[in-house]
Amino acid sequence: MTHLGPIHAILQGGSWLLPEIAGEIYRGASPLYYWAGALLAQLLGWLLPVHDAARLATTLFCAATLYWTGLAARRLYGEASFAPAILLGMGSLGLVVHAHETQPQLAQLAGMALCFAGLGELSEHPRRAGIQAGLGAALAFLASGLSGLAFTIPVIVLTPLLCARCRSRTALGSIALGLGLTALISALWLSAVAHHAPGEVTLWWQEELASTLPHASHFSEIGKLLQLFGWFAWPLWPIAGWAVWRNRQAIASPQLALPLTGSVLAIFLVATTGGLRTAGLLPVLPPLCLLAAFGVSSLRRGAANAFDWFGVMTFIFFGIVVWLGWSALHFGWPPGLARQVARMAPDFQHGAWLAGALIGLTLSLMLVILPLATQHSVQRGATNWALGMTLLWCLAVTLWQPWFAHTKNYQPLAAELRQVIGPEADCIKRRNLGDTQRAALDYFASIRTVRYDAAKDCKLLLTYNVGGSTRSVPSEWQPVWERRLGGGRKAETFKLYRRD
């Protein structure tokens, strides 16, 4: 919901240059994703709700990432690697987790994939390669600021060192052309921002440097970092590791050195910059996809069969888990799981479930039958993994979407709050209200708040807490309304106070 806020602001007449949430500048991401989301919402708003139309930007950038990753694999390893690169990308757990979200960092992945696709043909078509690599780096910058450049520029600069055929005068000139194109596009946006809001570039630059400079805080949680990386990049990292080991004698070749350098750089930056969150690991996926596409075709027969059957059994097992959870939700069995589900959403209203169950049953049958019908080849493991991941995700969404929507749906809450505050809505102070909540209240009910320390004499105060924690407010504020969303440790509590 956070990243719907800037799109909603654009559609309501806000700035296209500076992302905003509920009337305040938001520096958490650069504008590329919001531009795409706003354009799609304008084009398809007559057909879909704004939030659904805007979320199609995620589909656009995911599709671009997968295609350009496959294109990079084709240029590096040949035609046979195009499909495995796309299938492995579709099946990577990290991409699946975020491929349904309004997530700007997916636009950075598209830029990185285009950069790798360009560099993959630098020796054969240097001018086109330089332009594509430069455009990819520019897209990454417009999507994630300096972080996007940190993941792409070093790879572009190091490419001539990794590829002897890329050291010709034409290739070096093409790299310079690409870097110049990146600098030009970046400077155009920053110049427009400076003209529109003098001083904002300085604040943006300071925050970008603070978030991009390396630090060692993640290493104090090295176990958590490794665990996060282990599942997030599955099944890419074991196959990529096999590719590096099997071709270790040719590690200096561009086919191996380029994606390996990109992978090492991405892992280093993820481990030493930003916060420890799942979305921060997304940039490791494109280069690992390339290495995995290189390795999947050379898996030994036993390993390929093991990967194939492990995927099939894994998805069948988790399909059963999804059905058990659904049974606990609707019929109270198993009882222990039912108690846990009820605790997380105590006021969930059970609606019609038969249609969803029939669709889920069809998807479950496909989950069992289709992997058995795929053609026997070295790509079968990647094909079945992508197929199983897609069907399992569709099954989970079909059976559990009403429950997830209930636990995270701010629309009824915002409508109720709008009725409570009445005409005093023009000035509401806030405490502990995050960007997600501010964006939701603005989108669903046009409710905007100001910081608690703002020099405004507001009569209302809105507070937000998670997991039952509370923060005291001065005695001059008297509670008039309270609403809880969800349950358990992640229960969200909104409270409205009026000044006495």
What count of domains describes the coordinates? 3
Q: Count all strands and give the number.
A: 7
The Cα radius of gyration reads 25 Å
- Lateral strand order in the biggest sheet: 4-3-5-7-6
β content, as a range? 5-15%
Structural class of the secondary elements? alpha/beta
What does this molecule look like?
64% of the residues lie in helices and 7% in strands. The protein has a five-stranded mixed beta sheet with strand order 4-3-5-7-6. The protein has a two-stranded antiparallel sheet with strand order 1-2. Helix 1 runs parallel beside helix 20 (435-445) and helix 7 runs antiparallel to helix 8. The longest helix is centred in the middle third of the chain and has 31 residues, at 301-331. With 500 residues, the protein is α/β, with parallel strands linked by helices. The chain folds into three domains: 4-296, no CATH class; 301-408, no CATH class; 411-499, D-Maltodextrin-Binding Protein, domain 2 (3-Layer(aba) Sandwich), CATH 3.40.190.
